[in-house]
């Protein structure tokens, strides 16, 4: 129970309500409350969070697995443990989603997307999704610079411990994980390591009137190792991370007469980053934060294998380096208002041994001015962001012209008796990535940025009692995307090029309903999310086939329900996810991805013997064994099992 | 009265034969297994899923070329499925082979089908053959087995048969990714019966990629350039001169990305010149008289026009993806792939170039085949010189080798023979 309680209170705090300490635990949890108290009241921003216990209760391997339960999230997954996993929030596109670890953005100047499969939940305290961005007193400029933001917050250890986990899962998957953490004299930290090996040869079946294809995924294996560490003291936090993987990149399942031809493409990744952040409040009115990061990424993609007799023989290496620094300052003359300013600079370098490619250096600077006020339940926030991008390259296509843009965002909310009404508007763009601009035989250095304009109206309600905690959140929104950056074949040639083409318009509703009940021995949670949206093409009014027609891969309805039931250290979770029908081309009404229902179950039991604990966890994913896809002809694994044993001191 | 009834019966009989019968291949999207076949008859799309309608299963991933072989057989390359599919003109699948991976384009002599491939491996009746570069494979239609394969240049694309020789346009198109070779500049000439490479004609022009139409002895070849410094252009190659080791081609400054042959032996072409340096393209429409082009060394024979409204209709398309003249009727067809995510369109013009219809088809419609209006594949070609003077085999319509044409008896029309895959009338 004592282990359980902090989770409840942190949760209550994060969703924006005042923590009223219960008489028994108040002293026990004072330290946690202090940390959390720096968190702003979140009701002004549209956000969803999964924390500690609930996060661990889901059947998740990666961050992507957790995010799919959030309202407004569409996941793109090529299938299997090694398949690229990206998310798209409210149909803005994966490159508009910023992913932040402890407030510092994970970037990929090359393609602008983050493979969420690379991040583990075992070191995370919480995963949050903010539509538009988080609104805090002292944020770096880059935190304002994406259409939607995912925050991964690292767990700060509160005691010394060592945990070891061993897992055996379907499709020849083995995993070993260890986590050691300490807390001494105000310093705390952890080292977390994981090694996974999976053959990933899951069976699939395509069954329709026109085919009955049965097979096993090949070239879908992955092996990876990850080691990371973090160190914290008061306002200082730091994180070091290394990930090394080798995986197969399987293709789409297409008509073949036999299994004779296997297209082998393999990918190696080595990602490293080190980051540190320091924040301090002084003289009551001033708040300063400094961020620094260095990242180094290596990627190799190879198809030059003897069994690949029928494809291009590619063997390319990409190296990216990224240096980042930010300084943020907030001035709070009165407790109810803050003014802040921040400057960020990022240096990115991309090297690749592609033909007709030369190193590219990008310097990206951002400044923001923001104001936030919270006066008798009325909250107002506004920001003005300036971004400047400049590239340098000796590639013969030349560098793109520098990009210089201002973008605003405004938010307001009013809270009365636990009920908050909010409205916000944000304009933001994504700069063309280095691939968009310079990639051999695709890049177009004349690209303009892709703009999004988001308007949101919402309400949020919280109810907290001694045993009950409930919340309701509903937002209606309207998004416009202009100058979409897409790859299209050019008029009258077989050549493809990146182009600015397209305008989309999206209206939708996101809602979450959460209820939690707990007694001394029992706890129950029911978390629901629902997304309804209509996302249409508004590019060319003359084009009857496309105009006002739904955007591909965008479901009208999707919903997730998670039920957690716990008794002492025994816990059972069932998650249900429904994703409606999605079109994957506009050419024929037949080109749809069927709706799917996904049910996952997880049973966990922990036995504490003196200072040690032993745990066992059984998970069954896709209980109904539904065959489904996120992309046509890229089947997802069906029913699969995971058995995890854990040992902790 | 009897005469009137006879006329009506005749009229009905004639009208029972559809005049415009077009099979159109829609490439679909790569790795989405959605290649489709459209069947178009007399102004109407009968089906955009014709192969599946007729066979109960899907065509495959990225169909890339279609040709008619004889009255009862059509061949299709399905590139990413690694399949060469044989169907009847009614759409029924009769055979398929996967011996030739990464297959590209086809030609035939009626007894064999010749296929270009970007791949490096080919299963033949004498075992696997491996090649460093690309190859041409020869499929025997009696068995649908690959009987021979011959290495040509890297990534060979267009293929045509002339006088017992295969003319293969090499691209080297993977040179953008592969380090072991550069863009190709050659046309390989392969002896079709021995399947041996006779020579490579170096055009000096890189990347001979795109549609390659044939008009008798002339070929219309496209080069998109290297997409950077070397601009796109077009070539007319004279096969006869190439075989006789004479100066055999002319180059002109307009690409011919999509091209076709007219009934009077000219080429119609639509193309675009693009450079990644400027990210700008120039669109062009051409009518080429290959004979004049060759005879004048490129001085004349080229005009920047197309019949009727074709030029303006093509320039209004978002993404032109093919042009074709029905060799039986002269009606002209073109396709627009649109915005790529949605369905493409098939355009139909009269032989004079008057637009008469626009029909919704499927994704990336690019490869056409007209079926003979009376159901009889009529690829008859007159030859001037004697049929038997160059040592090539001549067959009758039962496939029997003929040494003395007079000995042939009347199962098939007299004086009609097959030589080098063409039906021929013996001029005596």
Provide tags for this entry.
heterodimer; A: about 650 residues; mainly beta; Maltoporin, Chain A; 22-stranded antiparallel β-barrel; 5 helices; disordered N terminus; B: about 425 residues; five-stranded mixed β-sheet; four-stranded antiparallel β-sheet; about 10% helix; about 45% strand; globular
Describe this structure in words.
The complex is a heterodimer of chains A (about 650) and B (about 425). The longest helix of chain A is centred in the N-terminal third of the chain and has 10 residues, at about 5-15. In chain A, the strands form 7 sheets. Chain A has a 22-stranded antiparallel β-barrel. Chain A has a 5-stranded mixed β-sheet with strand order 1-6-7-4-5. Chain A has a single domain (about 45-649), classed as TonB-dependent receptor, beta-barrel domain (Maltoporin, Chain A, Beta Barrel), CATH 2.40.170. Chain A has about 650 residues and is mainly beta. Chain A starts with a helix and ends with a strand. Chain A is built from 5 helices and 37 strands. In chain A, strand 33 and strand 34 form a beta hairpin. The radius of gyration of chain A is 24 Å and the shape is globular. Mean pLDDT of chain A is about 85; it is low at about 1-40. Chain B has about 425 residues and is mainly beta. Chain B has a domain at about 1-15 and about 375-430. Helices cover about 10% and strands about 45% of the residues of chain B. Chain B contains 5 helices and 35 strands. Chain B has helices at about 1-15, 50-55, 240-245, 290-295, 310-315, and strands at about 20-25, 35-40, 45, 65-70, 75-80, 85, 95, 105-110, 110-115, 120-125, 125-130, 135-140, 145-150, 155-160, 165-170, 185-190, 195-200, 215, 220-225, 235-240, 250, 260, 265-275, 280-290, 300-305, 320-325, 330-335, 345-350, 355-360, 365-370, 380, 395, 400, 415-420, 420-425. A 5-stranded mixed β-sheet of chain B has the order 31-35-34-32-33, with no helix packed on it. The radius of gyration of chain B is 21 Å and the shape is globular. In chain B, about 50% of the residues are buried. The chains are: A mainly beta (about 650), B mainly beta (about 425). At the A-B interface, loops of A face strand 23 and strand 24 of B.
């Amino acid at each position: 129970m004592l282990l359980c309680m902090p989770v409840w209170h942190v949760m209550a705090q994060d969703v924006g309500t005042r923590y009223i300490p219960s008489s028994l635990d108040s002293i026990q949890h004072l330290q946690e409350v202090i940390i959390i108290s720096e968190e702003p009241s979140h009701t002004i921003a549209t956000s969803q969070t999964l924390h500690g216990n609930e996060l661990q209760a889901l059947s998740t391997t990666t961050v992507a697995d957790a995010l799919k339960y959030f309202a407004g999230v569409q996941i793109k997954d090529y299938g299997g443990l090694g398949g690229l996993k990206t998310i798209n929030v409210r149909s803005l596109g994966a490159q508009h989603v910023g992913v932040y670890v402890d407030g510092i953005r994970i970037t990929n100047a090359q393609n602008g997307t983050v493979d969420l499969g690379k991040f583990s939940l075992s070191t995370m305290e919480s995963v949050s999704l903010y539509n538009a961005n988080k609104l805090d007193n002292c944020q770096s400029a880059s935190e304002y610079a994406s259409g939607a933001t995912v925050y991964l917050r690292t767990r700060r250890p509160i005691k010394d411990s060592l945990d070891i986990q061993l897992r055996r899962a379907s499709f020849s998957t083995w995993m070993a994980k260890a986590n050691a953490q300490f807390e001494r004299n105000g310093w705390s930290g952890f080292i977390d390591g994981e090694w996974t090996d999976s053959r990933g040869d899951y069976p699939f079946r395509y069954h329709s009137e026109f085919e009955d294809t049965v097979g096993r995924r090949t070239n879908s294996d992955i092996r990876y190792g990850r080691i990371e560490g973090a160190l914290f003291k008061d306002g200082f936090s730091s994180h070091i991370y290394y990930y090394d993987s080798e995986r197969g990149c399987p293709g789409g399942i297409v008509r073949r007469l036999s299994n004779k031809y296997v297209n082998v493409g393999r990918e190696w990744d080595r990602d490293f980053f080190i980051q540190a952040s320091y924040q301090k409040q002084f003289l009551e009115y001033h708040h300063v934060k400094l961020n620094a990061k260095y990242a180094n990424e290596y990627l190799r993609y190879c198809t030059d294998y003897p069994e690949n007799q029928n494809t291009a023989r590619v063997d390319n290496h990409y190296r990216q380096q990224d240096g980042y620094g930010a300084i943020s300052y907030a001035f709070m003359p009165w407790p109810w208002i803050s003014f802040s300013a921040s400057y960020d600079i990022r240096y990115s370098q991309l090297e690749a041994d592609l033909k007709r490619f030369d190193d590219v250096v990008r310097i990206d600077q951002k400044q923001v001015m923001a104001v936030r006020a919270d006066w008798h339940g009325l909250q107002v926030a506004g920001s003005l962001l300036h971004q400047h991008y400049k590239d340098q390259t000796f590639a013969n296509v030349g560098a793109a012209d520098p990009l210089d843009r201002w973008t605003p965002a405004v938010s307001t909310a009013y809270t009365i008796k636990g009920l908050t009404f909010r409205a916000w508007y944000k304009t933001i763009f994504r700069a063309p990535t280095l691939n968009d601009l310079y990639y051999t035989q695709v890049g177009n250095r004349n690209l303009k940025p892709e703009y999004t304009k988001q308007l949101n109206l919402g309400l949020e309600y919280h109810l907290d009692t001694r045993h009950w905690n409930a919340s309701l959140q509903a937002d209606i929104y309207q998004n416009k995307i202009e100058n979409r950056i897409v790859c299209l074949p050019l008029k009258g040639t077989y050549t493809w090029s990146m182009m600015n083409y397209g305008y989309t318009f999206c209206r939708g509703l996101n809602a979450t309903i959460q209820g939690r009940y707990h007694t001394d021995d029992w706890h129950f949670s029911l978390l629901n999310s629902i997304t309804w949206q209509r996302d249409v093409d508004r590019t060319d009014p003359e084009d009857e086939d496309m105009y006002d027609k739904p955007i591909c891969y965008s479901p009208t309805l999707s919903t997730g329900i998670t039920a957690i039931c716990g008794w002492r250290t025994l816990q059972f979770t069932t998650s249900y996810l429904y994703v409606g029908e999605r079109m994957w081309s506009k050419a024929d009404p037949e080109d749809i991805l069927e709706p799917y229902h996904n049910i996952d179950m997880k049973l966990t039991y922990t036995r504490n013997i003196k200072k040690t604990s032993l745990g066992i966890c059984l998970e069954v994913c896709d209980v109904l064994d539904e065959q489904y896809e996120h992309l046509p002809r890229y089947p997802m694994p069906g029913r699969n099992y995971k058995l995890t044993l854990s040992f902790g001191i | 009265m009897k005469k009137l009834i006879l006329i009506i019966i005749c009229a009905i009989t004639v009208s029972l034969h559809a005049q415009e019968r077009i099979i159109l291949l829609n490439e679909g999207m790569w790795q989405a297994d959605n290649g489709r076949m459209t069947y178009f008859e007399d102004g109407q799309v009968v089906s955009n899923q014709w192969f599946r309608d007729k066979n109960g299963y899907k065509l495959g991933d990225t169909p890339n070329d279609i040709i008619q072989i004889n009255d009862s057989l059509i061949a299709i390359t399905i590139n990413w499925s690694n399949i060469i599919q044989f169907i009847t003109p009614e759409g029924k699948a009769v055979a398929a082979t996967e011996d030739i991976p990464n297959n590209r384009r086809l030609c035939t002599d009626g007894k064999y089908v010749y296929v270009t491939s970007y791949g490096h491996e080919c299963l033949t009746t004498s075992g696997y053959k491996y090649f460093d570069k690309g190859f041409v494979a020869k499929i025997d239609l009696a068995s649908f087995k690959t009987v021979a394969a011959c290495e040509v240049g890297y990534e060979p694309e267009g293929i045509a048969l002339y006088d017992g020789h295969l003319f293969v346009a090499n691209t080297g198109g993977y040179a953008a990714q592969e380090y072991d070779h550069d863009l190709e500049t050659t046309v390989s000439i392969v002896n079709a019966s021995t399947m041996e490479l006779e020579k490579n004609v170096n055009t000096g022009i890189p990347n001979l990629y795109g549609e390659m139409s044939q008009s008798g002895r002339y070929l219309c070849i496209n080069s998109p350039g290297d997409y950077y410094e070397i601009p796109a252009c077009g070539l007319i190659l004279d096969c006869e001169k190439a075989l006789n080791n004479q100066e055999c081609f002319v180059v002109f400054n307009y690409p011919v990305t999509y091209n076709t042959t007219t009934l009077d032996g000219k080429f119609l072409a639509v193309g675009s010149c693009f450079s990644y340096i400027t990210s700008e393209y120039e669109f062009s429409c051409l009518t080429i008289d290959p004979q004049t082009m060759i005879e004048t060394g490129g001085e004349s024979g080229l005009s920047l026009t197309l019949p009727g409204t074709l030029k303006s209709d093509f320039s209004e398309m978002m993404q032109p993806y093919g042009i074709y003249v029905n060799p039986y009727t002269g009606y002209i067809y073109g396709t627009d792939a649109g915005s790529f995510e949605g369905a493409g369109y098939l355009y139909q013009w009269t032989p004079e170039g008057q637009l008469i219809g626009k029909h919704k088809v499927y994704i990336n419609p690019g490869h056409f085949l007209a079926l003979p209006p009376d159901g009889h594949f009529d690829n008859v070609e007159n030859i001037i010189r004697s049929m038997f003077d160059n040592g090539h085999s001549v067959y009758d319509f039962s496939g029997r080798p003929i040494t003395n044409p007079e000995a042939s008896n009347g199962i098939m029309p007299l004086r009609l023979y097959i030589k080098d895959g063409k039906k021929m009338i013996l001029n005596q």
